[in-house]
Each structure stands twice: as structure tokens, then as C-alpha cells.
Amino acid sequence: MTKFVKRYPIWSFFVLSVLIAIITNLFRLLDPTFGPALFQEMASKNMKLDIVTGMSMIPKYPMALTFLIFPLAPTLAAFVVIAITQGRGGLKRWAARLKPWMGVGWRQGLSVWALVYLGLFAAIGILLIAMVMAKPDAIVATFAVHGDATPAILFSLFIGMFLSVGPLLEEMGWRGFALPLLLERFDPLKASICVGLLWAAWHLPREIVPLATGGADAWIKFFSKQIIFFPGCIASSIIATFLFFKLGGSVWSGILAHAFHNEISVNFLHAWRPDIKLGPVLFDWLWVMEICIAAIILILCGRNLGAPLKVSPASP
């Protein structure tokens, strides 16, 4: 087994991540009703979906622990593979990626962070205007979660970028381990596509409960969802890789790109979603926007996605 892991670290990482995800979601089948009850209570109390809320709900809903173990799967898998293949030194180098930026000056590091937050607040501003025009009553629910004024919403989302469950728990696996390793073999675009595909495929086990408990159209909904989800994950992966180079290999590149999507889609657009429906397929506006951003990065930077010349990021 050790020889296999050392020879195929990426596949070992991915298989272990998926196994943890499958086991976690199979546990949810023991009580498939807890999820709706949990989210209904959170909605009634105007609670944000983040790691603090998730942990606070575990005493009342013990199965809510699966909502934390599932996103932790890639990081757990990366820890195991690095421990086997590189030992304590590899784990130290891996943990070093938690710095807000690496090998770049503080001006560049802060500029990248500022750029991400500027994009977040610009998107929120556009969506607030669209919400007022399309569904004014959604404003009440949105403000109830984040605060009673626009500055409160912005502050809430600012803090939320540090508390988003998926990004915090997943990214040491995806951008902390898989991306640097793939960059040793492929150019940045290919590496980003590979990570995006693995990332999207890893999410499939979370559909176990909806498919097992859904109606006759559960499979139609499942396949139509993947039509935009897989390209969206690839686009988000391209954006994260661009930030990865600008932050010198810091895992916060993935956390920021991932949290940008999750905070808007989960905690801001919970009362209204500007989606485009073509037949049975629902095109999430946010995914479409991120695909456009990825396309712009490709046009401006080409296949290297902003990678510094003659620099090959070391594996963790």
C-alpha cells in the first residue's frame, strides 16, 4: 500500500477523499430528515451557514457533524498521503502554505487580497441592485441575516470569507496539495483543469441522500445540475490558480476563490437567486460570472495563468 501511495500520490489522495465523502454521506441516510429540519431552524433564526454555526448546531443535531467531516475529507486525505510519502518535513512544508502569502512582498500580498474583496463587494453591490429590481421582498430576508444596513452586510461578508466551511476545510487538499503536485507535471491550465475535474467529481457523493430520498425526477435534477457545476468548478479552479501564483503558493488563493463563491451563493443569495433556466437546466448566475472571469484570465495571461517565469512551485 505504501509503495502504491508513493507511486500514485494524486490518485491515492483522490480515492481516499472520495471514500471519506461516501462514508460520510451514507451516514446521513440513517436520518435523512435531519438536514431539512436543521436548515429550517437556521432559516427561522436568520443564522448564517458557516463553521461557527455548524459547530453550535451539533449538540442538538449530532448528524450535523457530517457537514463538517465531508468538506474535511480532502485535507484529511492530503495529510495521510503527505505523511506516507514525505514524512514530517513534508507536513511542515504543507502547513507553511497557510501563510497569507509566500515569497512575495507584502504590497503584492495585500493587493491581491484587496482585489478579491473589491470583486466580492462589487458583485454584492450589483446583486443588491438586481434584487431590488427583481424581488424587493428578498431584501428583508437578506438584511435579517447580515444586518440592518448595507455596511453591516459588507462587514458580515468580509468576516464570512474566513468562516466559510467548505473553503476552510477543503482547500489544504485541493490548492494546498493537489495543485502544487500537478504543477510539477503539467502547465498551469492543464493542472487547473485536472484539479477542477477532481474537485467537481469529489462532490458527487453529497448527492447520495437527494438521489435516495428524491422523487421520480431526482436523476434529471442531478444530471442537469452537473452541466453547470463541472464547468463552474473548472472556472473557479483557474481563478484559484491565478491567485495561487500571485500569492506565491499560499493556500489562501483557494480559500479566497472558493469562499467568494460560497459566501455569495449560500449566505447572500439564499432569499433570491438570479438564475437562467433553459428547459430542465438551471444556469446559476454566479457560475456563469466565474466562467467569464476565468475566460478573461485566460485571454490576458494565456496558459500559464500568471505563473512567474522559470519558477516551478514545489510540492508540499
Q: Please work out how many helical segments DSSP would assign.
A: 15
The geometry reads as: globular
Topology order in helix (H) and strand (E) letters: HHHHHHHHHHHHHHEEH
> Largest sheet, described in full?
2 strands, antiparallel
The low-pLDDT segments are: 311-316
> What is the helix fraction of residues, given as a range?
over 70%
Radius of gyration: 20 Å
Describe the 3D structure.
- This protein is mainly alpha-helical.
- It has 15 helices and 2 strands.
- The protein has helices at 2-7, 9-28, 34-44, 51-57, 66-85, 87-95, 106-134, 138-146, 150-160, 165-183, 188-202, 208-213, 218-246, 252-268, 285-301; strands at residues 276-278, 281-283.
- A two-stranded antiparallel ribbon has the order 1-2.
- A hairpin with a 2-residue loop joins β1 and β2 (281-283).
- α8 (138-146) crosses α9 (150-160) and α10 (165-183) runs antiparallel to α14 (252-268).
Entry keywords:
single chain, 71% helix, 316 residues, two-stranded antiparallel sheet, 15 helices, disordered C terminus, mainly alpha, 2 strands
Quick summary of this structure?
The protein is mainly alpha-helical and 316 residues long.
What topology does this entry show?
Blueprint: H1 2-7, H2 9-28, H3 34-44, H4 51-57, H5 66-85, H6 87-95, H7 106-134, H8 138-146, H9 150-160, H10 165-183, H11 188-202, H12 208-213, H13 218-246, H14 252-268, E1 276-278, E2 281-283, H15 285-301
Antiparallel strand pairs: 1-2
Helix pairs in contact: 2-5, 5-6, 5-10, 7-14, 8-9, 10-11, 10-14, 11-13, 13-14, 13-15
